[in-house]
């Protein structure tokens, strides 16, 4: 493909910027999100989707589909690394991945139904509200520090709906299989509707609801994210709601950003890192809230 | 572009990028470790 054809495809993406400017903005966004990944270990889709839709005014469905494809690239490397280190509870991952794929299909249908029912403008307002609520919740949980207050028996271990399965790597004797499937479906639905998962929803769910250790939660959630993102990309891609011209600059930028973030991470204190992360999340939530008010007034 | 080809590219290219970066980083780490081990061996021998 020639340079002119590449630029033409970039001009085809409906956004506030076009051509090389859009390319530069996406590279910059990827760099910023990659830095977050390197610094705090989060995937960044929960930032990319609302920022693509609000900062660059890219259609929400296109932003969700593209962020899912971006997640495939960013989470695959981490998953392979965690597999090598033995941090993946394989049986749990397979059960959750299967149910998360079903959840993603349901979520994508809900996304389409909401969009057709409310129209493009009102739908973007609904998505903004969902993202603002989610970011506020993330900031609250990070500042509160949920991992320290982990109970001995987690929520799903107290659910008494048979059949039960054993998770040997996490030393969990009996956990409800239907309960695990429901958790997977709910996680997948979030992925299908908003295109997010990973560090924001999947990992805390595995840690607090299922009862896996921190490292196992990270490794297993990456596998579940990979499978649900794959399903999401196929669904959104079939509707034309995913663009490689958005995905690739983000991936290139994030690869560089991860190196910068990791470099900075080694020079900052852990307690400070947590506070900085909460501030970044609050800043994005505030930006979305102000943007939301302007959108409503329009 | 045919929609099926587009979906395949949307899946395969990000995966290849992610795994390629991981492979390159791992290769770099192994080489660095091997070099350090060789240097240590030389120092102990001398």
Word description of this protein:
The complex is a heterodimer of chains A (298) and B (46). Chain A is globular. Chain A has a two-stranded antiparallel ribbon. In chain A, α3 (45-54) packs parallel to α10 and α7 (202-210) crosses α8 (214-238). Chain A has one domain (39-297). The model of chain A has no long low-confidence stretch (mean pLDDT 83). Helix content of chain A is 75%, strand content 3%. Chain A has helices at 3-12, 19-40, 45-54, 60-84, 90-144, 177-194, 202-210, 214-238, 244-265, 270-297, and strands at residues 164-167, 172-176. In chain A, a hairpin with a 4-residue loop joins β1 and β2. With 298 residues, chain A is mostly helical. Chain B is rod-shaped and about 65 Å long. Chain B has 46 residues and is mainly α. The longest helix of chain B is centred in the middle third of the chain and has 43 residues, at 3-45. Chain B has one helix and no strands. Chain B has one helix spanning 3-45. The relative contact order of chain B is 0.08. The A-B interface holds A 69-70, 72-77, 80-81, 230, 233-234, 237-238, 240, 242, 244, 247-248, 251, 255 and B 3, 6-7, 9-11, 13-15, 17-19, 21-22, 25.
